[in-house]
Queue: 3 jobs
Job 1
Amino acid sequence: MTTALDQESIRRAPKVLLHDHLDGGVRPQTVAELAAEVGYADLPATDASELATWFRTAADSGSLERYLETFVHTVGVMQTPAALSRVAAECAVDLAADGVVYAEVRFAPELHVEQGLELTEVVDAVLAGFADGAAQTATAAPGAPPIRVGVLLTAMRHAARSREIAELAIGYRDRGVVGFDIAGAEAGFPPTRHLDAFEYMRRDSGHFTIHAGEAFGLPSIWEALQWCGADRLGHGVRIVDDITVDSAGNATLGRLASYVRDKRIPLEMCPSSNVQTGAVSSIAEHPIGLLRRLMFRVTVNTDNRLMSDCSMTSEMTALASAFGYTWSDLQWLTVNAMKSAFIPFDERLALINDVIKPAYARLIAAA
Ligand SMILES: [Zn+2]
């Protein structure tokens, strides 16, 4: 007998998260408390539940630009070492409680220097917070696999600090930073503006992902891969524009889609976030259904847990119900993500063989 696939059993299953923004996953209560502590007066509400609703509604507006506005408030209260450490610690605790065994969480250091912090102080505070959060979860549930968190440093695509942030990522590579990313509104800011940062990462054999193919189509995916050399694609949903499906369901892949599938390029898909920004119209119509069927290297992610009011559990549950996924599908998606992580191969393999596969085997065969 197989364990029933529901919200609670999915929560307990091990999950891997590669695309989650630190400033997009702050607890509403923490936003309110930090704002009061640091004297941040611009919040649209001071009550935690009103704030939660406000974030969700503002992010639901259907445009990427409007969606990004919600970050002004979370970033606004994350300007001190104590605030950054607290948010990172709570992030690790919340992800562990959601059954995440490995996460790569990203943030843009350059957004947290409004009150004079150095970039290194920002990174130090976040790393200390993650270590603290991981230690708390190990104490709370002894014997359970501890959560491991790797950090990605993000540069903002409209700004001009990407080379500096790439250097920071390499500088911290043996202290918890596992890669680099660029994010922000795609319109008018192609990834090729940041070529020197990507060349720096490649010269130092560093890993990086690029937000591409979310609001913009195939050219942004092509640039990210073939010009910039990205290891993974943040979103990448628009790769479906290079796939045609006939009335019998047979798919024909264009050159770029073939390349992405042949090279096993990981797609960091974030279903709820894509629906919110209008990149797709519903979870049921999300290209993840087709891409999973065609065996692309699909992974499932949260993007911004606060703005989308989601978790790895809710994303997996929504996909299972939209596409009839079984435990085997969820295991496949989880192993895909673990294979695509930026930590060393032997460590990925250990998590797959010692943590993920045994747990799914039990779920599939549970008597
Ligand atoms: Zn993102």
Job 2
Amino acid sequence: MESMKSFIKFITISMFTVSLQATSYVYVEEGITLPLQNGSVLYSGSPVEVISKTADSKKVKLIGFVDINNKTKLYATQNLKLLLVESKSLHVEGKKGSFETELSNDFITEDSEEAWEITAERFYEKCTQCHAAKVVDEHTMLEWEGLYGSMNEFAKPTKEDTTYILRFLRAYAKDGIVKEVE
Ligand code: HEC
């Protein structure tokens, strides 16, 4: 009986530990891409799983979906709208894929807001001039594409604005991968 109790306690603690493990994100201070030495490119804000760590770097894994016709791009979701990694060395299994790399701590944050800040800033700068910021998670990624298109004429975004803002809208969309922190 006593051993059963401690077994249950062990299970409970293990489950708790797993669920407490915070997601980390790729952090880029300037721009939204992080080129790696081997020619691969990571995109800012991409969620990563920390596999192991040293004092100043971490081994991280990114998981997602690949286009079966172009196995060099890893996306966050099945609709292939939000890019995480471009690399010739993705590990691909069917529609799913993963990528592992060693990253300096400078490029990793546990704060999703920090990770997405550069794109969020662009959205607030460009999209609150005429009306209050629209609630991003009220629409899906696809809906946002249409809405964004209808704002082109008003907002006159540069190509870079569009890249940043669409990335932000897709990440925080109803079917996106991050939630706004209250
Ligand atoms: C120059 C002014 C202006 C800017 C800048 C602007 N908007 Fe708008 N937006 C409007 C006006 C005017 C409307 C209402 C008329 C309409 O729906 O066409 C509107 C409506 C909207 C709607 C509601 C549309 C609907 O069909 O319900 C969304 C969503 C939206 N804007 C998003 C954005 C986003 C995202 C940006 C940044 C890229 C942006 N807006 C920048 C003027 C602007």
Job 3
Amino acid sequence: MKDVKFIRINEDNINLIPDIIKIDGEDIQKKDMEKFIINCDNYCFAGIYKNEIVAFLYGYGMLRPDGKSMFYIHSVDVIPKYQNKGIGTKLMEYVLKYIRYEKKYYKFFVLTEEINIRACKVYEKYADKEEQVLFSKNL
Ligand SMILES: CC(C)(COP(=O)(O)OP(=O)(O)OC[C@H]1O[C@@H](n2cnc3c(N)ncnc32)[C@H](O)[C@@H]1OP(=O)(O)O)[C@@H](O)C(=O)NCCC(=O)NCCS
């Protein structure tokens, strides 16, 4: 899978995105993504292979009251038939290189579950595992 091209989606290349993209079992409409990427602290990245989006990642910068910002990777997805071929790893590599180059964020973080072995394998290449418990509830 050497020919996968990675890009940050912006106003100039958003036309490469289909009208609806399935991420994490949910549909994201292109028109909503257009609004999302207007904010320069919101990021969408895609892996493209033979004109098809085979991988997608989105995240955002989070400003702390001390003025330091962290980058949160909210979602990483490789479409099932292309999983376990190194694309997720390359996508993370591309994104982290991109983010580091910007020098806006002092730290990045990403959440997953212990049972998601593939995700853990990919993330441990780039980050240290922290022992924390996440609590959440719909508002
Ligand atoms: C998680 C995900 C993004 C990873 O991307 P990917 O392209 O499949 O991952 P890669 O091929 O780059 O790497 C997978 C790694 O897991 C390893 N792996 C896969 N199955 C494994 C298993 N059963 N036991 C141990 N290691 C395993 C592979 O060997 C590889 O590690 P290596 O590069 O050291 O050999 C992708 O699988 C995906 O989209 N999964 C569904 C959505 C998801 O879970 N997203 C993350 C939510 S936080």
